[in-house]
């Protein structure tokens, strides 16, 4: 079966689109998206091409844009282009490059599909991308749901190349003389995905040359298993979860004792409310200790242990969102952001001047557990570079921070002292000095 035949078959079997749909193709200029453009056109679908220029690779980014525009013109399909001020957006929000670019592009795809009447948005992820995602999530401990790879369809978003391997796509491009550009960042091993793509997977293929097809079957089985679990969890939810005045109560005594309780709790809290695995692990340990009143936070919800039950509610505007950060904790959640903690030796620190969304702190000056919470009136600290104390409220006013941002402002404390006005300024008492040996490096990312 040719790639074009397999492509049409995959679309039909998964009911992704019909020839009556208008499909917005997201085309970067890389081989995957350029092949996707060719396949859709050759199969006679009505398509338009959307290209994002994130302006992060200088002339490379502009050359990508030119190539995609020329190919769209050659095929006679509409071309849409947007140049994003990605670096400025990263500076403004404190997001990583990947997160900022993802948020910007998906918001634009949604806006474009609505304004131009596209019924589907096609992304050129393929089978190898899905396999890489499996390993990324395996290393991050996301649970079974994260091991199912990339979804074929989520709302308007479709991924019609998930049946194809990278090798098959490259062979099609060569046979059909399809031009494409290679992103130089794909060769950088500073990214986890590239470490897996360039380091781990080639070694596994040495052991089993049929690794890709084997993993595709494994991902399909894992997806089926997750669908089965989802059905079972919904039945448990009907029996064990009640709702009153906006608060969901998980009655643990209504869960069949024959079921693995921690797994059921994970599925209930993760799928419906967005709680992460390490937070749920801490909650389950607190349950075993009978810690009534302990609170645990996701991005938008708080879970409270209450006499063997779990109460889940939206986070109230006046909630302090106070959590304890133990030594060695990999991350913690605060409002719409996550903090990643990395412990390292001073000799590994290459840059002492870092952006505001990163804090580098003398770890030996800290008293654990640390406390993370929203700022309060009366809070003060000694901003880095200053010798006198300053109220947090005055600092935020001087920085012209908007009211919504003030409401989302968190502080990290060691004992009763503010270590970091999160995302803005560390306390001068915890700065790195010539005597520093161990460093706690904290990165804030918007989620």
TrEMBL record:
Domain Lysidine-tRNA(Ile) synthetase C-terminal: 370-442
InterPro entries: Lysidine-tRNA-synth_C (IPR012796), Rossmann-like_a/b/a_fold (IPR014729), TilS/TtcA_N (IPR011063), tRNA_Ile_lys_synt (IPR012094), tRNA_Ile_lys_synt_N (IPR012795)
This protein's GO CC annotations: cytoplasm
Subcellular location: Cytoplasm
One Pfam family per UniProt: TilS_C
SUPFAM superfamilies cross-referenced by the UniProt entry: Adenine nucleotide alpha hydrolases-like, PheT/TilS domain
Entry EC number(s): 6.3.4.19
GO molecular function: ATP binding; tRNA(Ile)-lysidine synthase activity
Alphabetized SMART domains for the sequence: TilS_C (SM00977)
Purpose: Ligates lysine onto the cytidine present at position 34 of the AUA codon-specific tRNA(Ile) that contains the anticodon CAU, in an ATP-dependent manner. Cytidine is converted to lysidine, thus changing the amino acid specificity of the tRNA from methionine to isoleucine.
Domains (record comment): The N-terminal region contains the highly conserved SGGXDS motif, predicted to be a P-loop motif involved in ATP binding.
Name of the protein in its database record: tRNA(Ile)-lysidine synthase
């Amino acid at each position: 079966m040719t790639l074009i035949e397999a492509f049409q078959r995959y679309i039909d079997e998964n009911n992704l689109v019909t020839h009556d749909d208008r499909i917005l193709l997201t085309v970067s200029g890389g081989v995957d998206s350029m092949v996707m453009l060719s396949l859709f056109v050759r199969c006679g679908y009505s398509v338009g091409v959307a290209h994002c220029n994130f302006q992060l690779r200088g002339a490379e980014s502009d050359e990508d844009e030119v190539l995609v525009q020329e190919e769209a013109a050659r095929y006679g399909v509409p071309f849409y282009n947007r140049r994003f001020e990605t670096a400025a957006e990263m500076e403004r929000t404190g997001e990583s490059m990947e997160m900022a670019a993802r948020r910007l592009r998906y918001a634009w795809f949604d806006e474009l599909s609505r304004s131009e009447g596209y019924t589907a948005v096609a992304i050129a992820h393929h089978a190898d991308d899905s396999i890489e995602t499996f390993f990324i999530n395996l290393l991050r401990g996301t649970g079974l749901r994260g091991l199912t790879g990339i979804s074929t369809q989520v709302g308007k978003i479709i991924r019609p190349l998930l049946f194809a391997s990278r090798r098959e796509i490259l062979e099609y491009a060569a046979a059909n003389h399809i031009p494409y550009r290679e992103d130089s960042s794909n060769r950088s091993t500073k990214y986890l995905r590239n470490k897996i793509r360039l380091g781990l997977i080639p070694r596994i293929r040495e052991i089993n040359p049929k690794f890709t097809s084997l993993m595709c079957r494994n991902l399909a089985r894992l997806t089926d298993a997750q669908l089965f679990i989802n059905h079972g969890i919904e039945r448990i939810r009907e029996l064990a979860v009640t709702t009153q005045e906006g608060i969901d109560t998980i009655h643990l005594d209504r869960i069949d004792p024959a079921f693995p309780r921690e797994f059921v709790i994970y599925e209930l809290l993760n799928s419906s409310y967005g709680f992460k695995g390490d937070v749920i692990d801490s909650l389950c340990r607190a349950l075993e200790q009978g810690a009534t009143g302990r609170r645990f936070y996701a991005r938008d919800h708080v879970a409270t242990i209450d006499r063997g039950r779990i109460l889940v509610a939206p986070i109230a505007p006046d909630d302090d969102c106070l959590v304890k950060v133990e030594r060695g904790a990999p991350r913690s959640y605060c409002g719409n952001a996550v903090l990643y903690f990395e412990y390292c030796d001073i000799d590994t620190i290459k840059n002492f001047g870092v952006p505001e969304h990163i804090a580098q702190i003398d770890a030996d000056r800290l008293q654990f557990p640390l406390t993370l919470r929203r700022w309060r009136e009366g809070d003060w600290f000694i901003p880095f570079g200053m010798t006198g104390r300053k109220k947090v409220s005055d600092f935020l006013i001087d920085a012209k921070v908007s009211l919504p941002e003030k409401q989302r402002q968190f502080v990290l404390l060691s004992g009763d002292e503010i270590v970091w006005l999160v995302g803005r300024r560390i306390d001068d008492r915890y700065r790195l000095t010539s005597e520093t040996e161990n460093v706690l490096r904290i990165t804030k990312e918007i989620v």
